[in-house]
Amino acid sequence: MQVAMIGLGRMGANMAQRLQRGGHAVVGYDPSPGAREGLAGMGIGTADSLEALVAALAVPRALWMMVPAGEPVEATIAALQPLLSAGDVLVDGGNSNYLDSQRRAAALQALGIGYLDVGTSGGVWGLAEGYSLMVGGDVEAAARLSPLFEALAPTPTTGWAHVGPSGAGHYAKMIHNGIEYGMMQAYAEGFAILERRQDLIPDLAGLAELWRHGSVVRSWLLDLTAGALKDNPGLEGIAPWVPDSGEGRWTVAEAIALDVPAPVITQSLIERLRSRQDNAYADRLLAAMRGASGGHGVKRG
Amino acid sequence: MQVAMIGLGRMGANMAQRLQRGGHAVVGYDPSPGAREGLAGMGIGTADSLEALVAALAVPRALWMMVPAGEPVEATIAALQPLLSAGDVLVDGGNSNYLDSQRRAAALQALGIGYLDVGTSGGVWGLAEGYSLMVGGDVEAAARLSPLFEALAPTPTTGWAHVGPSGAGHYAKMIHNGIEYGMMQAYAEGFAILERRQDLIPDLAGLAELWRHGSVVRSWLLDLTAGALKDNPGLEGIAPWVPDSGEGRWTVAEAIALDVPAPVITQSLIERLRSRQDNAYADRLLAAMRGASGGHGVKRG
Amino acid sequence: MQVAMIGLGRMGANMAQRLQRGGHAVVGYDPSPGAREGLAGMGIGTADSLEALVAALAVPRALWMMVPAGEPVEATIAALQPLLSAGDVLVDGGNSNYLDSQRRAAALQALGIGYLDVGTSGGVWGLAEGYSLMVGGDVEAAARLSPLFEALAPTPTTGWAHVGPSGAGHYAKMIHNGIEYGMMQAYAEGFAILERRQDLIPDLAGLAELWRHGSVVRSWLLDLTAGALKDNPGLEGIAPWVPDSGEGRWTVAEAIALDVPAPVITQSLIERLRSRQDNAYADRLLAAMRGASGGHGVKRG
Amino acid sequence: MQVAMIGLGRMGANMAQRLQRGGHAVVGYDPSPGAREGLAGMGIGTADSLEALVAALAVPRALWMMVPAGEPVEATIAALQPLLSAGDVLVDGGNSNYLDSQRRAAALQALGIGYLDVGTSGGVWGLAEGYSLMVGGDVEAAARLSPLFEALAPTPTTGWAHVGPSGAGHYAKMIHNGIEYGMMQAYAEGFAILERRQDLIPDLAGLAELWRHGSVVRSWLLDLTAGALKDNPGLEGIAPWVPDSGEGRWTVAEAIALDVPAPVITQSLIERLRSRQDNAYADRLLAAMRGASGGHGVKRG
């Protein structure tokens, strides 16, 4: 079927390709001419403006946004809305907050425009392996776009699902990412211990590779870890500086709001904050307190 | 090749079968007649005593223990040692502390007896899918037993590796299990949040199944989780009571001994302790302190 | 000076008494007749309505709210605002969110009405020992009400301070309470360990009392703890169920928003959530996963 | 009464002075001539060797060690034992592991020599304010040395107590220090949040000072914090590097051994490990995993 892809960054461009390979007619748009040229170079059609993009689609239209969460999504919807017609369906495939998605869906549905929030997992590997798609929103709109989901997913049947009403897709993705934080931190801690005992186990990349086969901790994240360690066992040239995006924070806030203890996901987020501390005030105060209490000298910094 | 399997519990019996299927001649031993009969019923030979077991093997012998860590392993080795000859190789495939394994290897190697500590991962699924084997100890002894490892592993080449000298196998397994604690806790927290929002996402088993395909959090533990949720979405009849074995504790102690922060693995262990608290004193004291400070009433218990 | 006390719960009634004892002319108001009668029984004047209360005060007026945070404060201000005149000063001495206080101060200051957010610490002991007052808002309004602060504080000079502009007082109180959570949890954990070793140290109340004198961990919270343990060493009849109010949650959210790691304050909050879990889904899922992975039986619940 | 002080570091020299001021006849010993001269300069007697020290005391003797835990205590006892007689009492006032103290007490008691493990809290402030003394061991030996405890404690009656049999004193001190870790971390986190909001609350030292008077978080550690912040509000020149001694680690290990959750004390220890990490491998691995998963660039380090 015909579909517009709005936002041709790494994720959007990859998904446009996978859709095109899956037999769909993709028209791409990005405000950056370079991004549009990149897609055109893959033999996929592009439009120079949102107006041209919408005009290029037969009604009822299907449009898919892969745009950064927050203001960019808000602005894209504001620009699109007057161009769309009742019966069109717009997808937000990014990492929006589920409450925003619920609000946007309600506003567009009042105009007869369908709105689906589709949590999308798979990262840069999705082009080759397929994306796990968590679809939230109107069931009929989801059914109408199912050929797109089938093309994007690893297999037509298992890699996507309608998980609930508006917001459910982004909610599921939020929790997915919270779990991911915890898993990543668990691996990172384990390998950090091992890194100190290379007297005993010299080949960390080899151990990671071994665990990929038959062990209880095998996972896709372990596959990545094994690859990263194989390429660069000493992790040289990489700063110990770990960003976090909104979804970890939202998971922590949601857990607290629901009175659900989530200590490990929460601590995983805090570890990322910690990685970005420079000359941490808390640690300096602890050192000062020790000095004042026990007469211990402090290390000068 | 010929091999003795000592300890015919769930793990030992399964491994004996997989070895036999792999073309090896297994003789099993367990102090329990019922366990021996179970193995015999699968067409695998057994011996009624350690003496008979050792006598049934041609030298140089290969013997594999799947016996609970601690005293049972210690006692088994004490009983076996006078029966063995220089050139024999004994494997501890259980979850022993790596320092014990180093001590035992040194004692047996002084008698010319090889000793391998083989961290074994795969659980009850290993019979069908193969086991991930982390082999520690003498390289030549490991090479001699490699046909056994090849039969037990998911594939002859990728599912086992010699990871280092004596102790390395059990050290690797210890860290493996520490990571497993963290991963399990991350999933458990994520689904516990979701369980409160079944208004939004009614089918947790379906979401777990979806994530198995193409998502960043796909893993073997997620496969198990999806299966458990499919069978019993409400987890009814299961007490919120989580045991822990030694390896999580050893991982925590090792991290601290090495000055490596492992907050998530550590907290995962603490959560298991917490699950087994009954009428927790700490919480009662907090309630009492709140009452004394702010005049807040306490809930009577 | 003349002052109105609005809200005659435990905190408000005590503060009204301490102000009256300090030589101020207090008029109290509470929607509950019983609360008003209670204050009147202490020889302190009351008014039957906010209108009567405001009418009883000479301009420029001073009014102090001790009202639950959230809707009650919002409603009280909405009712008071038409009754007040430029030059009056209204105090919120409760545990409001500092962002609400900033908003309210701006709205009232546009009408010429002063608004102070006064973080108030001291609990039920403040009547006898004085309250620690963290004053936020306009410096001149604070200066005008300083006789009230001097009467409420433990000493006229050390127990209160103007800590910053609007919101600063409640911000300081928020962090104060976050710290309190961490301290309480630290004591609770320490005594919970000791409780298991009464073979070695039989008298926990005695140890708490000892630590009050000269030890590094002496504190007012330890004074309370020692008192609670003396009264009820086994903490019998107290449920292990620990409420939390908004300030701990706000501290956690603020730390994350500022990228400041606050693992111990955060975990202290999570422990309170944990204390209120019943048949925790996360723990049941962990038990189910263990069963599925290792064939371990689960405890039936 | 007559007493020997062995170990004239900061703690030992201060305690010798406080004992002498309390009317006791102190003889000090330290292997360092400078330490002995320091004490002699205060008008307190010293001995040049352990032999001379023991010879200077009338039987039955009282001797007090303030010597680093571990090998120094072990060596001191080994040197003293042949010099002592049945009926003498030796005190370990340092931070020994309680299991070591139990072993040492048993060995010495077999020779008729009393041995008391005395957890000593108060730091450098103990000279002026007195020490909190947690006495473990034989009741009669404790009673005989009570004049010493009375002189060292803040008041003769409240600042020391016999808390249990051998090991109980050091056990109590271990838990005391675990609690101290948690309290210090709670304050450090709170002030670290405040440090980012000096737009709102510019004077952290002033706020700490305010909290000392009437607030719920007032404590001796807050007194120290207020002093440290007053001297150096920006904590300039202090490295964010926090040592830990054995007692925090032992508390964590003991909690786990007893199945008691102690998440906050444990995390406080981990934060100290974290403060001493340089170029943390775990954080670099997390950054590498993010890069491999999402195609996110990593910060070069």
What secondary-structure arrangement, pairings included, does this model have?
The structure is a homotetramer of 301-residue chains.
Chain A: E1 2-6, H1 10-21, E2 25-29, H2 33-41, E3 45-46, H3 50-55, E4 62-65, H4 71-80, E5 89-92, H5 98-109, E6 114-121, H6 126-129, E7 132-137, H7 139-144, H8 146-152, E8 160-164, H9 168-195, H10 204-211, H11 220-231, H12 246-257, H13 263-275, H14 281-294
Parallel strand pairs in A: 1-2, 1-4, 2-3, 4-5, 5-6, 7-8
Antiparallel strand pairs in A: 6-7
Organism (chains A, B, C, D): Luteimonas composti
Domain 6-phosphogluconate dehydrogenase C-terminal (chains A, B, C, D): 169-301
Protein name (chains A, B, C, D): Decarboxylating 6-phosphogluconate dehydrogenase
Provide a descriptive summary of the structure in words:
Chains A, B, C, D: Keywords: Gluconate utilization, Oxidoreductase. Chains A, B, C, D: Pathway: Carbohydrate degradation; pentose phosphate pathway. The structure is a homotetramer of 301-residue chains. By secondary structure, chain A is α/β, with parallel strands linked by helices. The first copy, chain A, folds into 2 domains: 163 residues, Rossmann fold (3-Layer(aba) Sandwich), CATH 3.40.50.720; 107 residues, N-(1-d-carboxylethyl)-l-norvaline Dehydrogenase, domain 2. Chain A contains 14 helices and 8 strands. An 8-stranded mixed β-sheet of chain A has the order 3-2-1-4-5-6-7-8, sandwiched between helices. In chain A, helix 4 links the parallel strand 4 and strand 5. In chain A, helix 10 runs antiparallel to helix 11. Chain A is globular, with a radius of gyration of 23 Å. The termini of chain A are far apart. The relative contact order of chain A is 0.08. The mean pLDDT of chain A is 96. At the C-D interface, strand 8, helix 9, helix 10, helix 11 and helix 12 of C face strand 8, helix 9, helix 10, helix 11 and helix 12 of D.
